[in-house]
Amino acid sequence: MHIEACRPWLVAELSLLKPELIVVLGATAAKALLGPSFRVTRSRGELLPWPASAQHPEDFPVAEIQAMATIHPSAVLRADDRDAAFDGLVADLKVAARALAK
């Protein structure tokens, strides 16, 4: 319910900002934007097309941008192995940084 209610504001922001890359943090955000079958654990750190991968691509009037999903930073705090979780998050963010540096 909140996701659908806030969608117009997100669409408006993306239309104005025209980002090159959207980093989606956590499973809830990923499923809301990339579809209910999306799994962060399977696709984290991968550059994905946008809006073709979006659940409602017609809502997002942006073009030629990418998306990348990773874990939510709070997941690091809940992880059994915090060092490994942190290292994975940093590795994912480095993928995003390299994509933007091109």
How would you explain this protein's 3D organization?
This protein is α+β, with helices and mostly antiparallel strands. It has five helices and three strands, in the order αβααββαα. It has a three-stranded mixed β-sheet. It is globular, with a radius of gyration of 14 Å. The N and C termini lie far apart (37 Å).
Short description:
With 102 residues, the chain is an alpha+beta fold. It contains five helices and three strands, in the order αβααββαα.
Strand order across the largest sheet: 1-3-2
Determine the CATH superfamily. Answer: Uracil-DNA glycosylase-like domain
| Strand fraction | 5-15%
Q: What kind of sheet is the major sheet? A: 3 strands, mixed
User: How many helix segments?
Assistant: 5
Helix content: 40-55%
Shape, per Cα inertia axes? globular
CATH class: Alpha Beta
Number of domains: 1
Radius of gyration: 14 Å
Q: Could you report the average pLDDT, rounded to the nearest whole number?
A: 86
**Terminal-residue CA separation:** 37 Å
Q: How does the helix and strand content classify structurally?
A: alpha+beta
Q: Which sequence of SSEs, written as H and E, runs from N to C? A: HEHHEEHH
CATH topology: Uracil-DNA Glycosylase, subunit E
Unreliable spans are none
Strand tally: 3
CATH arch. level architecture: 3-Layer(aba) Sandwich
